[in-house]
Amino acid sequence: MSNTMNEVPIQKPEPKYLLTNQDVSFGSSIDPLKRMDIFSPDDFELFIELWVTETLIEKYQKIVRCGGAGDMGRDVIAYIKSEDNTAVSWDNYQCKHYGSPLTPSNIWIEIGKLCYFTYIGRYSIPQKYYFVCQKGVGNTLNTLLEKPEELKSEFISGWDKYCKEKISKKNSIELTEELLKHINSIDFSLFSHKTPLELIKSLEGSMSFASIFGGGLKKRRDVPMAPPEKIDTSENIYTEKLFRAYEDNLKKREIVEIDENKLSEYPKFKRHFDRQRVFYFSAVTLLDLERDTRPNNNSFATSLKDEVYDEIIDTIESEFENGFTRVQAVTDRARLMNFSSHPLSGIVRPNDAHGVCHHLANENRIDWVDIYDE
Fold it and tell me: Which domain holds residue 56?
């Protein structure tokens, strides 16, 4: 028997993200760990260079990939930023694309190269030396990396077996008293490693992650918020410019100063103004997504704002009867834009391009009256 008295209607949750054609245009992403398995060794080095560049750009001044013959045990060099902008200190990312996790025998030669080439002065000792393998490091090596003195002791014990004949193709490198003294002066806590999940998680949600592993952007665009009832302080510039455009439209008939309170006396402008605020806040979520997914926290090759600016600037600078007609012509132009060359093209809508015009006005990159009409 139905207990209608106690039935509670099911509340449909408000959507948090916009459904876009990205959700249906991309297939499932390739499992990143499996994808890294099919990299070539060179591809893996390029991936690590990209990873360092995009996730640690705030730390480093310059990143250089020098893997290959003659690298002296350095695959990706990252020069640490300094106050005087000189690149002295550095970190090394040593790439190993193996079929199994790294073991101590895989790394002795690399440590040997560092010890020998710093001993003869070919380069300085790095601050950190990271081993990076798509399979990670095995338990034995992980334990040794956590015990630097034990790591050093085992390395020295294995010099003749792993390093003596392998550092140089021309010469045997004897573990002389002077070289041993140099090795003992090195703090072996500089050796560490990066796990495969560290590499993956720190790139997730970025355009680079999507381009390498597929599946489109993992970070979704939030549903635009409704404009607050009262104008927010962050809106002061573009809204003031709209008021001036409305005044400019009326100046031949009457002298009037329009503000938020007086706007209701002009229904046409009030309706227009309310729509502009909707478009402004629609663009906020798109610009936030662009900021969060672009490489290095810098803009894409061309940012959305720059694309809109380049499209509308000739219209902006054309002659118009008044500022209001300029607003209408410019935003109409923006709504017709094709963003096919932009990485986020699949989620840009006409309302967004319209709203970006007001973001440009809010940043004082464009205006509707005075500078064009005087």
Answer: 27-213
**CA nearest neighbour of 243 among 348, 82, 358:** 358
d(CA 12, CA 189): 54
For residue 38, give both structure tokens.
């099919």
Indicate the pLDDT class of residue 97, thresholds 50, 70 and 90: very high
Q: Are residues 77 and 204 in the same domain?
A: yes
The per-residue pLDDT for range 291-331, each reduced to its tens digit, is 766 655 444 445 889 999 999 999 999 999 999 999 999 99
DSSP letter (8 states) at residue 340 = T
With contact defined as beta carbons under 8 Å apart, do 123 and 103 qualify?
A: no
* Residue 186 and residue 74 share a domain: yes
Residues 244 and 347 in one domain: yes
The encoded tokens of residue 56 equal 């640690």
Q: What are phi and psi of 331, to 5 degrees?
A: -70, -35
User: pTM of the full predicted structure?
Assistant: 0.58
Torsion angle, alpha carbons of 287, 288, 289, 290, to 10: 50
Nearest to 373 by CA among 325, 312, 306, 305: 325
Total number of domains constituting the chain? 2
Residue 262: C-alpha distances to residues 254, 265, 330 (Å): 14, 6, 25
122 token code pair: 């070919």
Q: Which amino acid is at 186?
A: I
Given a contact cutoff of 8 angstroms between Cβ atoms, the answer to whether 96 and 57 are in contact is no
Q: How far apart are the first and last CA of the chain?
A: 78
